[in-house]
Amino acid sequence: MDEILSKLPAFEPGSVWLVGAGPGDAGLLTLYGYEALRQADVLVYDALVGQDILSLTGPDTILEYAGKRGGKPSPKQTDITERLITLAREGKRVLRLKGGDPYIFGRGGEEALMLAAHNIPFRVIPGISSGVGGLAYAGIPLTHRETNSAVTFLTGHDASGEVPNVNWEHIAKGSPVIVIYMGLKHIATITERLVSFGRPKEEPVAVIFRATTENQRVVVSTLEKAAEDVEASGLKPPALIVVGDVVKLRPDLDWYSRFLDGNRGA
């Protein structure tokens, strides 16, 4: 391991690393991400980054919270990016740590563009997105030869917090599997639109809460009843919504609750 880590690039002072922390389980962090945590002078982290990952920082690393949560007071994106620039210009090794992957509904592209515009050296370290890792921990394959050869990743709300203005008809008719990030607030509207454009009411839906963590819970339902079942569960975000026949494979593939102590994925 030491030999591998010795070959990783140096985290240079005055630079910013945009790192994906993965969906929650600290074991899914990449080696690049782990080394960045050990070397960073300042860690600017998101709301969905868990304490077990934050604890991997060096003893002198300064932690700065910059979490954005829907419906709650949050730092403005421009303020976060300006802070990254300021810290880098002070000669700090700045780690911007994001849940999942920085470039998948993580605003990493916005931050990277601003860093580039200000000539701040940066590196992007991909992370395992919840749309991949979360499904795997829920016992749902993202693709399966007998069900789908295409997947659509979709955000459940736009920049204003409303249902995204996408072509719902094309999505409903064109993608056998739909993975929806941050869609719990609008799950009733989203499922109604999919049904209105031809998806069967009985099509399976899984809603994965706190994916890959010890608090993971999965609600399995249908397009017709998903909103009702989620409300009855009393579970709260973060959550990921999966629509499609791959959900039917969960009873056989749910390794997380079948083979781990405590039945944690139920």
Automatic annotation (TrEMBL):
Its EC number is 2.1.1.107. This is uroporphyrinogen-III C-methyltransferase. One of its GO terms (biological process) is cobalamin biosynthetic process. Belongs to the precorrin methyltransferase family. It is an enzyme of class 2 (transferase). Keywords: Cobalamin biosynthesis, Methyltransferase, Porphyrin biosynthesis, S-adenosyl-L-methionine, Transferase. Pathway: Porphyrin-containing compound metabolism; siroheme biosynthesis; precorrin-2 from uroporphyrinogen III: step 1/1; Cofactor biosynthesis; adenosylcobalamin biosynthesis; precorrin-2 from uroporphyrinogen III: step 1/1. InterPro entries: 4pyrrol_Mease, 4pyrrol_Methylase_sf, 4pyrrole_Mease_sub1, 4pyrrole_Mease_sub2, CobA/CysG_C, Siro_Cobalamin_biosynth, Uropor_MeTrfase_CS. It comes from Sneathiella litorea. One of its GO terms (molecular function) is uroporphyrin-III C-methyltransferase activity. It comes from the Bacteria. PROSITE patterns: SUMT_2. Residues 16-226 form the Tetrapyrrole methylase domain.
